[in-house]
Amino acid sequence: MSDLRRETTDLTVPDAPAMRLLSVAPSGAGPFPAVVVIHELFGVNPDIEGVLADFASRGFVAVAPEIYHRGLEAGQWLERDDAGRKAGFDQLNALTRTNVIADLQATLDHLAQRTDVAGAPSIAGFSMGGHIAYLAATALPFAKTVVLYAGWLAGTDIPLSRPEPTLDLTPGITGELLMIVGGADTLVGPEEAATIDAALASSGVPHEVVVLPGVGHAFFWPETPAYDAAAVAESWRRIEGFLGEALP
Q1: I need a surface site. Which of 123, 143, 185, 186 has the fewest CB within 10 A?
Q2: How far is it, in rounded angstroms, from Cα 193 to Cα 195?
């Protein structure tokens, strides 16, 4: 990361504590395309910072808003253990659609003011963050959306998927969408992926749903039981192809 620019910024969100935004950008003045990365259950942790660096090394200004800023201190993230998982679900169940959209609008406003950013930003999210990315695509002007194994889109299990399932909001998507999920994912699964594919198709959203055979949930993270290096490499190949038109 020595040749990349890393910085944090505190953004103002109406009726909420300031939201910390972690940014990793290529060296130089740009301008560069931008991608917003939404964290999974454990917050903006070193894994998410690694994804920002991966995007920045590919020529993007990559930013990660701390969606848990109403409940956690700035810079705080959760360990991948039972206590961290419980705390993560506590934070997840406190999120509302209105609050999340306000967070992402503040993020878009920040990117619009940056001189090193050009063009309409894209968004990418993992698991819970994939759900948020999908929701954001229905309400905000993201050019392209990358959804990695998003949970709870077709049901009403979490506050973010109420009052109606987030999938029902699909007609509001104005950009393009790429979804990647493992064929052995017990949270999403190929059946739900097919349901999401059908909803996107019926709404006329340009999209692709990729199911990776034999791959489980949350396969992206090294040093975790679900990690699958081949699936990560294939995902980056797909993401690069999908977002490639945004590159200068």
Answers
A1: 186
A2: 5
Per-residue pLDDT tens over the stretch 238-247: 999 999 865 5
Q: Is the dihedral of CA 40, 59, 229, 79 positive or negative?
A: negative
Q: What is the pLDDT of residue 51?
A: 98
What amino acid is encoded at 219 in this protein?
A: F
Could you give the CA distance from residue 48 to residue 190 in angstroms, rounded to a whole number?
A: 25
Amino acid at 35: V
- Rounded to 5°, the CA angle 227-126-65 comes to 130
* Integer angstrom CA distances of residue 217 from 170, 172, 186: 23, 27, 7
Q: How many CB atoms lie within 10 A of CB 243?
A: 22
The string of DSSP letters for 34-50 reads EEEEE--TT-S-HHHHH
Question: Encoding tokens for residue 92?
Answer: 């997840």
Q: Which residues contact 245 (CB under 8 A, 6 or more apart)?
A: none
All residues at 6 or more sequence positions from 226 whose CB lies less than 8 Å from its CB, including other chains: 216, 217, 218, 219
Spans of the chain, pLDDT less than 50? 1
Residue 125, number of CB atoms within 10 A of its CB: 27
The DSSP bridge partners found for residue 124 are 37, 146
- For residue 198, the Cα-to-chain-centroid distance in whole angstroms is 21
Tokens 């791959």, residue located: 215
Q: At what angle do helices 97-113 and 128-139 cross, to 10 degrees?
A: 70
Q: Alpha-carbon distance 22 to 35, whole Å? A: 12
Q: For residue 22, give Cα distances in angstroms to 25, 36, 87, 89.
A: 10, 10, 21, 22
Q: For residue 186, give the amino acid letter.
A: T
Q: Which amino acid is at 143?
A: A
